[in-house]
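Table S2 (text version). Query chain:
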Amino acid sequence: GGGGGTAPGMTYDSGVLTASITQELKMGETAKFTVEGASHTVRIMGLTASTASVQIKSILITKLLALGAPAEEVDIDNDGVNELALKLESKSLSSSKVNITIAPLVGAVITPAQPETNETKPDETPSYEEK
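Corresponding structure-token output:
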């Protein structure tokens, strides 16, 4: 056999994360991206038959992602707001590869307007009722 490919520790730079991406990573490889003006990384630290241990850095966070589990939301800058969602899509122990979806939550963290506010959504026309 032989093979070739990438050296261990390869980093894939996705630039500014504006939409969900799915990145294939081998053990020890890193996905790099920018969220809210800061650079962050997700690195594969360990694999089992049904889980992947990932390390998220800007501040050090470790998460265990399980196949079939809902996306794991992560507060990557310790400000009390989750900026990322990570989901283990698939994995192969034989090739030590995983597919992880990394999604920005920037728009999702805005709480919906409460009924008592007078805010309108851009696609809604305000209605005025006379009493």
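Notes on Table S2: The chain is about 0% helix and 45% strand. Strands lie at 11-16, 21-26, 30-35, 38-47, 51-57, 61-66, 72-74, 84-92, 97-104.
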